[in-house]
Amino acid sequence: MAPEQAGFDARRLARLDAHFARYVDDGRLAGWQLAIARDGKVVHTSVYGQRDAEAGLPVEPDTLWRLYSMTKPVTSVAAMLLWEEGCFELTDPIAKYLPEFADVRVYDKGSSGQPFTVPAAEPIRVWHLLTHTSGLTYGFLNTSVVDALYRKAGYDLAMKPGADLAEASRDFAALPLLFQPGTAWGYGVSTDVLGRLVEVVAGVPLVEFLRTRILEPLGMADTSWSVAPGEPRMAALYVPGPDGRRTRFDPVGKAAFEEPLAPSGGGGLISTAADYQRFMNMLLARGGALLAPRTVDFMTRNHLPGNVDLDTLQTGGFAETTFEGVGFGLGFAVVRDSVPARVFSSPGTYYWGGAASTAFWIDPVERLTVAFYTQLLPSSTYPIRPQLRQLVYSALTD
């Protein structure tokens, strides 16, 4: 669709390409891909730089990107497919399906060498997993005694070597929670545990459930948990070097070429821009042929207790969003009021991002989907996401 027909100024859209080209030209990023659509029709798409700088391979429309935490909405949709079928209630204690969570404990005080814990006053419920209010955390956050315990147990940037999803779930249940369930918001392995719950309830492995119930119905043929060694379309992975220029990071990047023993529902998928566009189009269409319209509406409301924003409940640490004026639904951050964060979005916009600086959002008011793909860990390195929003919304003319 021509930009003018979709209510965009083509000259202002060109600012996006020029702005993010500078990230590549000065060495901060190796390359990127951008897709903007309205009413499900692509208005602006562009690529720049290299998917593999060392090999001299450019970013192309079918480049494969690591989604990392942009996997979480996909796993959340998988859970809600089962919810629609009456397989569980959102208020169910997860111990009903994962008995290892029957007697979880909560960190109270002490060190990682001698932590003191108390019983959970409330069981972890399914909706706690979907909203990151479970008390589960991530080992790589480096902000608490509890995440130090995760690292001691073998869970840092990746799953413990040799552990499958069932073992990982048991390990997480044996570790203390960061806070009492439902009392705070903390980023962590909640969606990985949700993925384990999906496979227990569905009676099939998570990989199979996502493939047959989401990826194949939506035509996401290029989305998978790993790629063949040497796959030429796969983007390399980078981190900032000492001089601020990106540096190749194969120790973590090589995981894309290995079939995971514990497929991470919270961060495991690899995909293309075209494939993820199909997923976003389904959500923009309020479920399409996959979910019921009211289910998507329900998922994208703020489910935080008291309808507060993340700033009120957050525990700090790494996350893929700002906290001010932002709530959290069932698998997505949800904009309540864009003014506190000083970056415009329509109320009700929902979104998430990935650790390698990828990001997407869906604006039901403007009927808009936007996705940005790149390959730099961590996502907090540069203000790509707020800059992307201000440039996209300033290009709207209608």
UniProtKB/TrEMBL annotation:
GO molecular function, one term: hydrolase activity
UniProt keyword ATP-binding, yes or no: no
Pfam families associated with the record: Beta-lactamase
Chain ranges passing through the membrane: none
Keywords: Hydrolase
Keyword Transferase: no
Domain Beta-lactamase-related per the UniProt entry, residue ranges: 16-388
Name assigned to this protein: Serine hydrolase domain-containing protein
Organism: Dactylosporangium salmoneum
Lineage: Bacteria, Bacillati, Actinomycetota, Actinomycetes, Micromonosporales
